[in-house]
Amino acid sequence: MSFKSILQDVKGELGSISRKGFDVRFGYGRSRSHRVVQDCSVVVDAFKQSCWANMPPELLRDVLLRIEASETTWPPRKNVVACAGVCRSWREIMKEIVKTLEVSGKLTFPISLKQPGPRGSLLQCYIKRNRSSQTYYLYLGLNQSSNDDGKFLFAARKCRRPTCTDYIISLNCDDVSKGSSTYIGRLRSNFLGTKFTIYDGQPPNAEARVTKCRSTRQVNMKQVSPKLLAGNYHVAHISYELNVLGSRGPRRMQCVMDAIPASSIEPGGVAPTQTEFHHSGLDSFPSIPFFRSKSIRAENFQNDQKEGLLVLRNKAPRWHEQLQCWCLNFNGRVTVASVKNFQLVASLENGVAGQEHENVILQFGKVGKDVFTMDYQYPISAFQAFAICLSSFDTKIACE
Fold first, then answer.
1. Is 210 helix (H, G, I), strand (E, B) or coil?
2. pTM for this structure?
3. Is-contact 189 164, C-beta < 8 A?
């Protein structure tokens, strides 16, 4: 049997697993708009009993390498996730093969959504708003000529409270609640909608704290602070400048990234990279991280006030005399004028200048009545970018 035929047979059997397992458990067959990036925890006994279970390690690694290299987009990339769910040995190989989002530029496992985006290029996503249910859905990519909604990434639900507003963020579009096993974090605003705090249910520095405990004895999740698991750790603060004089112009915003050092945007700089979730709800093998992290661990950034924190500010637009409006160059990604549109760049407070200061780290803009594009890159993650964009949806009477 040729190597090409072996590869085709493995893909075919993985495809059968995907249809039987992924479609039932993760909603691939129910609706195009409800495709969840989830870790494969499907029991695949049939596959384990097949001839591929006893494949020589060298040949198996070569097959898995080719599968990972060939399945670069979704939905075919679910085969890569299926490989990681076959058994522990397959998972060990896949966690070595699949690189972090920063390096590969490819979203694969759920943890990819908590990792810094790719360097040097914007990862294109878009947000769909449902006004009636006050929910927001984040998808990977946007093809205007296709009826496919793209790859579902996150869902958020707006919850109004007497003194604030919460946006609960989840990996599951059907269970957007803080008590869900797929709860990721939340965004909370003040009463005026001018200041926001992003709370992370799985902060990057949590790994450092657990690892520190493991150096002395085996630790289970009960030994980790309940406050940590409850998602009460803030990772960013967003503020909108008050417009007390009622002057014309777009909103002015600033984001202080509490978990990212200012040095991350410099050549050779690094940002904390989370390599695993810290509870078993999203990981069928909780003791094994998805990736072998080659970045500096998050503990190196804890309490490091000397470097300072990364501060993002909206890029100043230019007034267009002929069009009589404020303009920004979104490179064709934004088509509808809106006060919500923005581009974020590193603030001069970070000591950056020139090209580093001009690089857009996050851009958000309107393309339809309830459709908005969201493009981001290193050093922020999809979760952080989505939460920042959600702040733009909130009513800001004092800022306009």
1. helix
2. 0.78
3. yes
